[in-house]
Amino acid sequence: MLPHYPLQTAADLDPLLAAIGKARVVLLGEASHGTHEYYTWRAALSKRLIDEHGFHFIAVEGDWPASFAVNAAIKHDQPLPGNSAAALLGAFNRWPTWMWSNWEIASLVEWLHQRNQGRPATEKAGFYGLDVYSLWESLQEVLRYVEKQGAGAVAAAHKAFQCFEPYTDDPQEYARAVAFVSEDCAGEVTRLLAALRQQVGQQVPADGLPTREIDFAAEQNGLVAVNAERYYRAMMEGGAASWNVRDRHMMETLSRLLDLHGPGSKAIVWEHNTHIGDARYTSMRREGEVNVGQLAREQLGREQVFAVGLGSYQGSVIAGRRWEDPHRVMAMPAAPRGTWEHRLHQDLNGENGLLLSSELRGQPDLDQPIGHRAIGVVYRPEFEQFGNYVPSIIPDRYDAFLYLDQTQALHPLPTKPAEHTPPDLYPWGL
Q1: Which of these, 206, 244, 247, 411, could form a disulfide with 103 (CB 3.0-4.6 Å)?
Q2: Residue 425 lies in a domain
Q3: Using one digit for the tens of pLDDT, what is the confidence trace for 208-255?
Q4: Do the Cβ atoms of 98 and 24 come closer than 8 Å?
């Protein structure tokens, strides 16, 4: 039997917190974007890290503008907009809306807002988005910012906005249009970011947020525009190019957030296992792909980063059968023999468990790749065994693993998706 600890309540996370120790960044994964228990266990651990270990913010695999709206709201000493977290989360209207517009996140947002009340600005826990998809939304945010200030970057913002305007709000149309020509909008967004960086620091403070955080958000929207333009161009090339643009952007954003919060700042990251589990110990390495887990270890030092994977054996999950399909509850079949999840189901006798990599090293067969489940926002259970398992050396990919034997689907909020959702690099959407 593999060495493990029982996992039933938040108190059972004590061995994990001890193993995390003084790590500066804790990466929390998930084997799907639609499983209730992944969100609730990450929330339980995040609350303890914030309350007991002084972590400063949660950064998620979500868009910057929508996440920053949540960040601003939870730091105000007044009721949430619409008097509920559910109303606030309507800002996550890019398909798949359920990833962040769900009751599980609403509960976490309510907790963060309540915890922040009356605290000094430096002690308020934040909530930020790391992803690169929000090209159009970020350009609109930049335009609002510079027009409010006047002069400076206004001209550059209008030029960038006008460059993308022929493609309306459909980044795919832009990517197709520039795939085979030399003209694109790369120069416009690069000049916009440079102009923004010259201008920040002049903004009048807004109630509830320090000036430097408002300026940071504007610059970050400019950076999203630059890297989103690169992402959509790279998407037409195929291969690892667009995946790497995306994960490098997420790591750059994480580094910028750590710098924003100061030398002693500590971060919690919520992303799919494919982003937080070190790519060098998976089949992704063969494809030339990097991810946040690998980049964080390389840039911050292995002792400063602690990666926690999450996975389960059987249950139900929220996903779409194809891109932009309405979400639905799907049955998640039992993991097939020979996979990581099947082995845990047998070894732990159908119980939940916490496993620490330091105790798994040297266990039979775990120094070799083993299939490890990965479900995205697009999922077809009948084909799972043909494309939803990533060969992984588990003790090196993660520092710990939360195994949840039976899981159930996430609980989405009724958010209407916006049109023209950009596709993910992978057909199943990780």
Answers
A1: 411
A2: no
A3: 577 889 999 999 999 999 999 999 888 877 789 999 999 999 999 999
A4: no
Reduced to 3 states, what is the DSSP secondary structure of residue 185?
Answer: coil
Residue 291 and residue 285: Cα distance in Å, rounded?
10
In this prediction, the residues of the chain whose per-residue pLDDT falls under 50 are 203-207, 425-427
CA dist., res. 195 & res. 322, Å (int): 40
Strand partners, 316: 331
Is residue 86 a part of any domain in this protein? no
Nearest to 186 by CA among 219, 143, 234, 150: 234
**Structural domains counted in the chain:** 2
Residues 171 and 232 in one domain: yes
Tell me, yes or no, whether 202 lies in a domain: yes
> Sign of the C-alpha dihedral, residues 385, 391, 397, 400?
positive
53: Cα within 13 Å, side-chain hemisphere: 23
For the stretch 190-206, pLDDT in tens is 999 999 888 775 544 44
Nearest-angstrom CA–CA distance, 254 and 220? 11
For every residue of 104-132, DSSP letters joined together read HHHHHHHHHHHHHTT--GGGS-EEEE--S
Which contacts qualify for 158-163: CB closer than 8 Å, 24 or more apart?
Answer: 159/188, 159/191, 159/192, 160/185, 160/188, 160/189, 160/191, 160/192, 160/225, 163/188, 163/189
290 and 335 housed in the same domain: yes
What's residue 110's pLDDT?
Answer: 97
Mention every residue, 6+ apart, whose C-beta is less than 8 A from residue 346. none
Residue in the structure block whose two tokens are 């903004």: 203
Quick one: tokens of 400? 């710990």
With DSSP H G I counted as helix, E B as strand and the rest as coil, what are the percentages for the chain, rounded to 5?
50, 15, 35
Domain that holds residue 196: 135-249
Strand 267-270 and strand 126-129: the pairing is unpaired
User: Residues 309, 388: one domain?
Assistant: yes
How far is Cα 24 from Cα 301, in angstroms, rounded to an integer? 10
